[in-house]
Amino acid sequence: MSFHLSSSLDRQGIFTDFSQHGYAHVPNVLPSENANRIHKGLIEKTPWSLGFNDRGKHIDLSATQVTTMPKQSVNQLQQAIFGRARDSFQYCYSSYPIYDAYEAGLNPGHVLHHFYEWMNGEEFLEFARTVTGFDDISFVDAQATRYMPGHFLTTHDDTVEGKNRRAAYIFNFTPAWCVDWGGVLQLMDESGNVRRGLVPSFNALNILAVPQRHNVSLVAPFAGGMRLAVSGWLRYGDKPQRSV
Q: Per-residue pLDDT for the chain (244 aa), expressed as one digit of tens each?
């Protein structure tokens, strides 16, 4: 199962955008058959969990845990998540930890694991170094994300000591999205205003310099689809070893 970048990508133009603006938007980044294969895997074969922040601790609830919770408990959890989002960093969305699952040997053969292998191969790493200008990028981590109505990610800049992040990336696999549905990747200026909003799209790659303040706006209750992506960071240094 092979993946490739589209042959028509303008690497110099992408580098110019990234170096001048701190981000680059790359449409049609993969051949269509590659993008369709990943989209199919996200829709049909991915075991999602619900993730959110609880006083600085990441919490994951499996689909079974969420579906078996009483309705009142679900409502209380949602209100608690929204409450913490008012004045602190918060997020709420479905995810699948590709990096962790792959390194732990879980779900072997999943299409997202093959995609992760490709991203850590020379074709994508060389592309990442070329378009960012960071020659020391040595590996990529990854997670799949699914934003449904009520999901969001509040403003942050991706700085985490010891993670060695050069840039964030988002491979978008969202077909037929409407800006009114929310889920927009919003990049902030120094005054806290939105300087650029990137609407979910299909087969487009966004690359953001780290640190850079950004968020994902709340997906509206009337949204008619799911915001699907594979995202993570382009990192330098030694790849963390799998714990045994």
A: 699 999 999 999 999 999 999 999 999 999 999 999 999 999 999 999 999 999 889 999 999 999 999 999 999 999 999 999 999 999 999 999 999 999 999 999 999 999 999 999 999 999 999 999 999 999 999 999 999 999 999 999 999 999 999 999 999 999 999 999 999 999 999 999 999 999 999 999 999 999 999 999 999 999 999 999 999 999 999 988 764 4
For residue 175, whether the previous peptide bond is cis, meaning omega lies within 30 degrees of 0, is no
pTM of the model: 0.95
Q: Which fold has domain 11-46+97-236?
A: Jelly Rolls (2.60.120)
Q: What burial class does residue 86 get, using C-beta atoms within 10 Å of its C-beta: 0-12 exposed, 13-18 middle, 19+ buried?
A: exposed
Please give the structure tokens belonging to residue 146.
Answer: 């699914």
Q: What are the respective helix, strand and coil percentages of the chain, to the nearest 5?
A: 30, 30, 40
Vertex 98 angle, CA 96 and 100, to 5°: 105
Phi then psi dihedrals of residue 234, to 5 deg: -90, 120
